[in-house]
Sequence to fold (486 residues):
Amino acid sequence: MNEILDTLQPQEIFAQFKPILSIPRPSKKEEKISQYLYDWGVARGLETIKDKVGNIIIRKQATVGMEDRKMVCLQAHMDMVCEKNSDKVFDFGTDAIEVLVEDGWLKANGTTLGADDGIGVATALAILDSKTIAHGDLECLFTIDEETGLTGAMALSDKALKSSILINLDSEDEGEMFIGCAGGVDTLGYMPIEKQPACTHGLPYMIEVKGLKGGHSGDDINKGLGCANKILNRLLWKINRECKMRLADFNGGNLRNAIAREAKAHIMVNPDFDKQMLQIVEDFTKDVKYEFRTTEPTLEVNIFKAERPEQVIAREDVTKLLDLLYAIPHGVLAMSREIPGFVETSTNLASVKITENEVHIVTSQRSSVESSLEAAKSRVEACMLLAGCRVEHTDGYPGWSPNTDSEILSVVVASYERLFNKKPIVRAIHAGLECGLIGKKYPNMDMISYGPTLRGVHSPDERMDLKTLQMFWEHTLDILKSIPKK
Fold:
């Protein structure tokens, strides 16, 4: 399987990426990939360490003539976002990712590719495995659970690393060098609901919103993409106000760091309002497809007859829930006043799930300004409290403050200009990078992040530009040769 990778360049990276595709590595279930990396390092006689949570550190001594260079840490996370198309039969716990190439892009067949950040892992392994690549003393840090909690970076000991320079291999725009990132926190709401037996005369329907691009809840939040939870709720809110609707289920989105691509609701409507309800759906579909005609050309809103549910949610709880989901903000809350085009603060209505007696709502806030992050999470909390929710906040993670005088930044920029005869873009990113947490533990660490071009990450549309991967590889090798002396 995946023999096509044997024909792609740089082969050094794909030789390492190919076996990674066959190893299950969902966030919080990294045991197999962690053990693989540990065994990989030990088999090559390299100093290999597994910490208490499963992070792996592999060290390699400098090549001949490079012993006087500062020690560098190459860092990547081993977990991946596991998303698939609804019609794709696939088990992320057992099945290998199937890859294909289309128009110069590497992608997966109906699932996320896992190049975020499997390519970062494979790149570090390729350098460790090489007998010809020049580098100083090197350590590679592979962390667990970056995608759903930054658990690995959070648990990393402040004595684990020996390097003075860290190169994070987890960015997604070739030619852009990142020197800062947003901090973030998740706000979770638990709304109690009462369920009642479904009436016998109501007409049951399923309404679904699908065909959206999804994407990263930080880096893609300002691209005008649709949130399936918001779109579906708009429709249900209107139906609930104008027709006698009962709601049995609302299921939308999955991951806090992904914009919801699909959502569906199981409803019942009084037969007297059936035609009116269907007309509302038809009119709304036309309107919302027009609204998103540019950014979401494959958006679908579908309604079809369904089985009769055994229970529905009490009417007053339905109204309260739909009002809440309408009120909770989603998208960009503030743009930076200093950096043109840079999102400062945002929030993502990530998922809505109905259980036996509660509605679980997951949101994610991001900001490069700590006080604005606090205000954003408080705004979401206030909406939830008004609806009677129990509210929890995760511990969150710190941002990474840009250092424009960074020594490694100068090296990286000079290398890029020398190789490609153009200037790279130096900026911060509106997403969480592990650099924020690592920098908090190692305040004197000089850090930078870059990578090949990835698009559609955290969705089955994830793909990697193969041309930029070759550039990324050449750039990384040149940087390692150019690391300053101790």
Observations:
- DSSP finds eleven helices and 23 strands in the chain.
- The radius of gyration is 24 Å.
- The CA atoms of residues 63 and 334 lie 48 Å apart.
